[in-house]
């Protein structure tokens, strides 16, 4: 019985985007606002339903390129918050992202992709 249910769910999700960092964050934010709506003010309930519906819409969407762009924007926006020990720079030649430890002063960076050398402060 569970094998049949699993196969049905797998067929349904084929070609759909699924859960990514933005979708998971929206889902948690929706649950938090729902709890706040139950405890503090009922106005948060409408907001929480909207957030949860949008998170589910993103997960079941077939517009994969659009959802990947949204997730890329989200990750770029919140990248400085997730890693306090490193700084991220883009290579001026090929736009490859390079990670450098913080607090090392002025450093010479060599791009791992195109081997272009440039200098930045960490």
What would your notes on this structure say?
- This protein is of the alpha+beta class and 122 residues long.
- It has two domains: 16-82, no CATH class; 84-122, no CATH class.
- It is 55% helix and 16% strand.
- The chain is built from four helices and four strands, in the order H-H-H-H-E-E-E-E.
- The protein has helices at residues 2-13, 21-39, 43-59, 64-82; strands spanning 86-90, 97-101, 106-110, 117-121.
- The chain has a two-stranded antiparallel ribbon with strand order 1-2. A two-stranded antiparallel sheet has the order 3-4.
- Helix 2 runs antiparallel to helix 3 (43-59).
- It is extended and about 55 Å long.
- The N and C termini lie far apart (57 Å).
- Summarize the amount of helix as a percent range: 40-55%
Give the number of helices.
4
Structural class: alpha+beta
The geometry reads as extended
Which strands sit side by side, in order, in the main sheet?
1-2
Number of strands: 4
Can you summarize the main beta sheet? 2 strands, antiparallel
Please state roughly what percent of the residues sit in beta strands, choosing from under 5%, 5-15%, 15-25%, 25-35%, 35-45% or over 45%: 15-25%
Low-confidence stretches: none
How far from one another are the termini? 57 Å
List SSEs in N-to-C order: HHHHEEEE
How many domain modules? 2
Mean pLDDT: 87
What is the alpha-carbon Rg in Å? Answer: 21 Å
What tags apply to this protein structure?
alpha+beta, extended, two-stranded antiparallel sheet, 4 helices, single chain, two-stranded antiparallel ribbon, 2 domains, 122 residues, 4 strands
């Amino acid at each position: 019985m569970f094998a049949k249910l699993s196969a049905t769910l797998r067929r349904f999700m084929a070609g759909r985007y699924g859960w990514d960092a933005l979708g998971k964050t929206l889902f948690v934010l929706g649950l938090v606002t729902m709890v706040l709506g139950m405890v503090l003010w009922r106005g948060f309930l409408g907001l929480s339903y909207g957030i949860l519906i949008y998170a589910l819409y993103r997960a079941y969407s077939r517009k994969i390129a659009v959802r990947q762009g949204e997730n890329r924007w989200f990750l770029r926006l919140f990248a400085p918050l997730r890693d306090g020990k490193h700084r991220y720079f883009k290579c001026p030649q090929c736009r490859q992202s390079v990670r450098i430890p913080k607090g090392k002063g002025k450093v010479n960076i060599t791009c791992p992709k195109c081997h272009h050398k440039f200098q930045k402060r960490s």
